[in-house]
Amino acid sequence: MNHHTEIEEQLVCANCGKKAGGYYETLLLPEGETYKGNSRVVSQREHYNGATLLRLNRGTYRAFNYGQFCTTSCAVAFANDAVRYGLKR
């Protein structure tokens, strides 16, 4: 597996205000191999020789409607505070 890491714009955690980097990794999977990691697959496309090129989200939790978070514990704390203050979906 070959991979390359890029850093996007600097983000700020919606809960604690710390900087939360937007880290992405490009991963080339050989033909027939499947990705078994825990990062979110942002995109995938066929590469030469049957390989698959994946772009993975690493190091920031961005798939929420309320902002970006630096860690899962900050995302959970934010959600618990929102419920405590009466925010309902």
Task: Report what the structure shows.
It is elongated, with a radius of gyration of 16 Å. Strand 1 (2-12) and strand 2 (19-29) form a beta hairpin. With 89 residues, the protein is mainly beta. A four-stranded antiparallel β-sheet has the order 1-2-4-3, with no helix packed on it. It has one helix spanning 72-84; strands at 2-12, 19-29, 40-46, 52-58.
Which radius of gyration do the C-alpha atoms yield?
Answer: 16 Å
Write down the overall mean pLDDT: 78
Whole-number count of domains: 1
Q: What is the ordering of alpha helices and beta strands? A: EEEEH
Major beta sheet summary: 4 strands, antiparallel
Shape: elongated
- Tally the helices: 1
Strand residue content: 35-45%
Features:
89 residues; mainly beta; 4 strands; elongated
Please give a quick description of this structure:
Helices cover 15% and strands 40% of the residues. It is mainly beta and 89 residues long.
Layout of strands and helices, then pairs:
Elements (H helix, E strand, L loop, with lengths): L1 E11 L6 E11 L10 E7 L5 E7 L13 H13 L5
Antiparallel strand pairs: 1-2, 2-4, 3-4
